[in-house]
Amino acid sequence: MLDALTVAVSVAALALAAWCGLAAFRDQPTKDWHFIGMAVVTLLALVQLVIGVVQLARGDKADEGATIFIAYLVGAFAAVPAAGFLSLAERTRWGSATVAAGAVVLAVLEVRLHDIWGG
Q: Quick one: which of 99, 6, 2, 101 has its CA closest to 44?
C-alpha cells in the first residue's frame, strides 16, 4: 500500500470529521459543502481501494491475508457514503454528527489497513 495515500485519506477524513463536528456543535445540518467534502474523501478511498486490489492482483501480499485486507478496503470505502446517506434522512445537527462519526471510523480503518498490509 502507499503510505502517502493512507495518510492523505486519514487526514482528509479527520478534517471532514472536524468540519461536520463543528456544524453539529453549531446546531447545523449537513449542507452542500459538506457533501462535496464527503465526495472528496470518498474519491480518495476509492483510489485506495483500486490501488489495493491492483497490488494484490500483481502478487503483493498483505501480512494478515488478502480477504481481510479487501474487507477493510471495502469498509473504508463505504464508511463516509453510508454516513452521508444517513445524514440525508436526519436533517438536523445529528446528521452532521453522523457524518463526523463516519469520518472518524474511516480514519480508524485506515490505521487498521496499514497494520494489515504490514506497515
A: 6
